[in-house]
TrEMBL record:
PROSITE patterns: ADH_ZINC. Residues 11-342 form the Enoyl reductase (ER) domain. Belongs to the zinc-containing alcohol dehydrogenase family. GO terms for molecular function: alcohol dehydrogenase (NADP+) activity; zinc ion binding. It comes from Bordetella genomosp. 9. This is Zinc-binding dehydrogenase. Keywords: Metal-binding, Oxidoreductase, Zinc.
Length: 349
């Protein structure tokens, strides 16, 4: 089927209206009429070819929510009309150790929602800035939030799971001091989730203007990271720091804030490397630098259910499809509170 979408033909070209083809649902497929799609900084990195290997035309978008429009003959978990989501993963090998453990995000054969190989036209996957998507039921998530919150649920499918998974893995919770660096799409979810898990949360921002907002999101303390004195007050005190920054920056400033055996987990994926950190900041307190990529399908469902139970959604600003290029420019300036979400009903209008 032919559907309206928004994407780009080259890394230096703006996004524009496109028509793309979706396969007819196979026996295990769910066809989803997309209602909203969140706008992740990864969309910018990929569509502008800042990361290696972008395939064009590129249709970004991996924070997808909508309603089931059709199901294949063997689909057992979903029915037409169900509220569902799709995140960053639409397929994987389904038999490796990672897939068997529900860590499809670490499968070598993971198929991303956009820019991954597929037998479907045009030979690579096309994402959620589009009216419909067809996905194997294994990679479809159930949305249990009230329908009125659907648009604000969309960012949970990437920003939510990308922060939830490392917070769980490194045991954020009562008695733990957790820092969240960068209050953008990922960071604002990191603050909400770490707060809901019971940790003492400190938000780090480069933007003086976000100081009060960070408290409202659930931060117990806020540090403007450009202020050396404010930083020094937190030296050697953190169990975990979740770093979501999308640009290369000085990691030492944050490593010095970890206590003995503390970990800083990088989830931001800048196009060029961070300056190499000073080894002495690591060895003198047995500190770790780690990384984490999104989360597996079972944990993504767990995160969605946790958020539904705790009344957690993203803080969003809705945009029309035609506003996407301007939204990217505003994200690069840190000018979004805190996630743009595209209203897919404006596609093809
Ligand atoms: P975003 O909404 O643009 O937020 C990034 C935030 O980083 C900004 O709001 C800003 O916060 C801070 N920042 C930006 N430039 C900075 C600089 N030069 N120095 C210090 N802070 C700076 O981006 P996002 O959608 O949250 O994505 C963040 C990064 O995570 C991207 O690189 C994205 O590709 C990556 N990502 C990774 C995964 C994964 O699986 N690991 C998943 C999704 C996204 P303040 O104004 O508060 O300083
Ligand atoms: Zn993302």
């Amino acid at each position: 089927m032919l559907v309206h979408a928004y994407g780009a033909h080259a890394g230096d070209k703006p996004l524009e209206p496109l028509r793309i083809t979706r396969r007819e649902p196979g026996p295990h497929d769910v066809q989803i009429a997309i209602a909203y799609c969140g706008v992740c900084h990864s969309d910018i990195h990929q569509v502008r070819a800042e990361w290696a290997g972008t395939l064009f035309p590129c249709v970004p978008g991996h924070e997808i929510v909508g309603r089931v429009a059709a199901v294949g003959a063997h689909v057992s978990r979903y029915r037409v009309g169900d509220l569902v989501g799709v995140g960053c993963i639409v397929d994987s090998c389904q038999h490796c150790h990672e897939c068997e453990e529900g860590l499809e995000n670490y499968c070598d054969g993971m198929i991303g929602t956009y820019n991954s190989p597929t037998p479907d036209e045009p030979g690579h996957t096309l994402g959620g800035y589009s009216q419909q998507i067809v996905v194997h039921e294994r990679y479809v998530l159930r949305v249990r939030h009230p329908e009125a919150q659907l648009a604000a649920v969309a960012p949970l499918l990437c920003a939510g799971i990308t922060t939830y998974s490392p917070l769980r893995h490194w045991n954020a919770g009562p008695g733990k001091k957790v820092g969240v660096v960068g209050i953008g799409g990922l960071g604002h979810m990191g603050i909400k989730l770490a707060h809901a898990m019971g940790a003492h949360v400190v938000a780090f921002t480069t933007s003086e203007s976000k100081r009060e907002a960070a408290t409202a999101l659930g931060a117990d303390e806020v540090v403007v990271s450009r202020n050396a004195q404010e930083m020094a007050a937190h030296a050697k005190s953190f169990d975990l720091i979740l770093n979501t920054v999308a640009m290369p920056h000085d990691l030492d400033a944050f490593l010095a804030l970890l206590k003995r055996d503390g970990t800083m987990t990088l989830v931001g994926a800048p196009a060029t490397p961070h300056p190499s950190p000073n080894v002495f900041n690591l060895i003198t307190k047995r500190r770790s630098i780690a990384g984490s990529m999104i989360g597996g399908i079972p944990e993504t469902q767990e995160m969605l259910d946790f958020c539904a139970e705790h009344g957690i959604v993203a803080d969003i600003e809705m945009i029309r499809a035609g506003e996407i290029n301007e939204a990217y420019e505003r994200m690069l300036k840190g000018d979004v509170k805190y996630r743009f979400v595209m209203d897919i009903s404006t596609l093809g209008a």
